[in-house]
Structure formats: C-alpha cells, structure tokens
Amino acid sequence: MTRRLLSLITAVTLIACGSNLAQEPAATFQARVDSATTTADTSRLAELGRLRCQSLDNEARSTCYEDYFLALADSGRVALALGALEALGRVAPEVEADGHSLTHVIGIRAWKPGDDVADIFRNCSTLYQSGCYHGVIQAYLTSGEVDSTRTVELCDLIAPMGTDNWLRFQCVHGLGHGLEMAWNWDLPRALAGCDWLATSWDRESCYGGAIMENSVASQPGGHHTSVRALENATASSNDHSEHGGGHSHGPTREITYKMRDSTDALYPCSALDERYLFSCYLGQGNILLTAVDWDFKRAAQECDKVAEQYRSVCYTSLGTNASGATVRNTAKSIAHCSKGHPDWRQWCHVGVVKNFIDVTADPADGIAYCKEVPAGKDRDRCWRAVGEQLTVLYTTDIAAREKVCDTVGEGETMCRQGAGLPAKMGS
Q1: pLDDT band at 174 (very low <50, low <70, confident <90, very high)
Q2: Helices (H), 58-199
Q3: What's the pLDDT score for residue 233?
Q4: What is the distance between the terminal CA atoms of the chain, rounded to a whole angstrom?
Q5: Mind listing the pLDDT tens digit for each residue in 33-66?
Q6: Is the pLDDT of residue 368 over 90?
Q7: In this model, does residue 101 exceed pLDDT 50?
Q8: pLDDT (tens digit, 9 = 90+) per residue, 378-404?
Q9: 288 vs 387: CA distance, rounded Å
Q10: Phi, psi dihedral angles at 2 (to 5 degrees)
Q11: Which residues of 232-260 are buried (b: 16+ CB within 10 A; e: fewer)?
Q12: How far apart are CA 100 and CA 327, in angstroms?
C-alpha cells in the first residue's frame, strides 16, 4: 500500500471521527499523537489537534490548544511542535490569531533545568513573531534566582553582540518577558532589571519585552497563555524528576503593581520614568485600543495627546496592532491607519509593515503592503521601514539588503536609506 494511500485513509478516518476526538479517552488520543510523532507527520499532528479542540467553546478551546502544544514540545520536539502549529494555523484562523502565544508555549516547554539554554534557543524558529525564542527565555529566567550576572550573560552566550542582531533581539526581548514574569509583573522592577544590560540597543529591546508582557498579562478576562504553560511545565518537570526538581522559582501571581488604569488610556506610560517612554509608547497600542473599544480613530486621538517626541511611536504601536487585529490584512490595516492625523499616520503604516515582516521574516510581505499604501509621505515612510527591517534580518549581509531594495521599484531610494545603504549613482 502506498504512503499516499495510507495518508488518505488516515485523513478519512480522522474526518469520520470528527468532534468525537474531543471526548476520546486521553490514552487513546495520545496513541494517535504518538503514532504521528514517530513518523514526524506534522500535517497529521495538526489535524489531530484541530479535531481534539475545535468543537470546544472559547477559553476551553484555547486551553485545549495550549495543552496540546505544551505536550507536543516535550522531550526536545521543538521543530515538530512548531511544524504542527504552522500547519494548523493555515486551516484554523483562531490558531493563527493566537499563534504568537502558542509559540511562547512551545518555547517554555522546550527548555528544562539542566538543558543547554543556547542549544534549545537555537532550535526555535521565526514562526509567529518568534515567540518560541521568548518562551525559552521565560522558562530559563523563572527557573532560578534572578540576578544581574545571570541576566546579562545569557544573551552574550546565545548571540554575542555584532554577530546576529536579529537573534540577539529575540533574546533580549525575551529577557523583558522573563523578568516581568519572574517578578510577578512588577513593571518598574522589570524595567530596572533591563537596565543591567550594557548597551542602549539591548536595554530598549528588553524594555519592549517587559512592556509587551505587561500588556498581555493584563488583558481583560485574565487568561494568560504563558502563565498556564509555565505552571504546567513546572508540574510536568516535578512529576518526572527523581529529585522533585523542575522549575524551582517563578511567578507567585501575587500582583501588586497596577498594570492598567481604566481612567487613563495612556497608562502605564503616563506614570513611568522618562527613559522608558520611547519603548512604552511603542508597546502601548493594545492597552490603548482596548480602552477605546478598538476604535482606531479614538486611539489615534489619544496618541495625538502624547508629547511630540513620542507621538510617532504611539502611532507605530497602533499599526502593529492593526496588523495583528486584521491577521495581516492589507486593506483593513490601511483603513485603520487612515483614521489617524495626516501628519502622523505614516507611522501607523510603519507599525503595520514591520509587523508583517516580523511575523514571517519575509521582506516580500512588507513590500506587498507598501505598494498598496497611498502614495506620498505615507508610502515613502513605509518603504523606509522595509529597509530598516532588512538591517535586522540581514545584520551583516549588505548584499542581501541591496538585493531586496533592488526589487521595490519606485521605493528603492527610501528602502536603501532605511537599510543603511548608499544612494545609487544618479538617484
């Protein structure tokens, strides 16, 4: 019997089972998963996850997917779990929408005390804004006492400065997430921990992770994927350790810091020290939009109140969230950004296009977006943002940056400026 016919029979069998897999005994379902895992069949693993969870309601479905990928990432199966998640995201919009959180889950489970953190970190991928990398750092930092030496040395071990800025960013951004969780979402304390890092680039990247964690953890409803993943990973590690080891520290969930203020859409930025404000407003979009019921016009009006030196990044944060809210829909994202002030909405497009590229690590996605942005300063700024992202994707590969900018046609000059390339003769 051919392999293709076997796959067809498997698919027909799964479809026939339908939602019954949601009620199937755990041991029986696990046998299905083990069979697909043995053959590294990510398509079948994706379908098993879908049939196990899709018929559940809202939070129960989210929890089901979290637990599924938490278990799938166990025993070093990071690539397998990420492959299954990618396949599932292609057919399940709710999974794609929550993809970044689920990659955090995979990263959290990927690392266990005693593992080489740098080795596990490098097993992650760019899938869904590289959340797997951030999850590894969260698991590592919450597994022991947090001190300046342990924090500072981690990213030097994983990606020394100047070798791979993109990979280093994933690490220092993950530090911000991890410090927030390790210190029970005390944002000022986590930001102060980021100040241990030696360079402003590292510190700003870390601030962004801490601020993003504050925003995610304070979402209305209280369901926080990474918290559940850490709790379950800790319990699993303890259950399987001869010495009762596992994650010995971590968040106690006794949160004393006020993470949001219902009377102030610009909080916590409005209450933080000046040195954190650039990163804070760059990450404020989710909190701000939640406060105005995701009305982008009202959100832009809130950004218009921000001091001028931070207004551009406030608008950029709106663009990042427009990309996420529309699941990278070009027309809808452009419509959201168009509601901003004409002098500042260009920065909303910056947030959108950078997020498009961040999610897939493919400049082509950003180029396609810029081509649809209205001509003029909005589109020019979009092209420049594409170039800026190329310096992150291709830290030391100048030829790769040039190759991409050569493909953008009328936006080439702005792309080259953003990418730090000299202007072409005659331009």
Answers
A1: very high
A2: 58-72, 78-89, 93-97, 99-110, 117-122, 127-141, 148-158, 165-182, 187-194
A3: 62
A4: 62
A5: 999 999 999 999 999 999 999 989 888 998 899 9
A6: yes
A7: yes
A8: 999 999 999 999 998 888 899 999 999
A9: 28
A10: -75, 160
A11: bbbebbeeeeeeeebbeebbeeeeebebb
A12: 12
Residue 322 tokens read as 């427009």
DSSP code at position 425: T
Compute and round to an integer the Cα radius of gyration of the chain. Answer: 22
Phi, psi (deg, nearest 5) at residue 309: -70, -15
- Please report where in the chains the tokens 């929550």 appear, as a residue: 98
The DSSP secondary structure of 266-323, one letter per residue, reads: TTTGGGS-GGGHHHHHHT-HHHHHHHTTT-HHHHHHHHTTS-HHHHHHHHHHHHHHHH
Report DSSP state, residue 422: P
Query: Looking at 4-13, 16-25, 244-253, which range is the least confident one?
Result: 4-13
CB neighbours (10 Å) of residue 126?
A: 19
- Give the list of residues 6+ apart from residue 317 with CB closer than 8 angstroms, or none: 281, 282, 283, 284, 285, 286, 288, 351
Q: What is the full DSSP assignment across 314-327?
A: HHHHHHHHHHHHTT
Alpha carbon of residue 91 to chain centroid? 20
* Residue spans per domain, the chain: 23-256, 260-421
In tens, the pLDDT along 231-240 reads 666 655 554 4
Q: 62, 102 in Cβ contact below 8 A? A: no
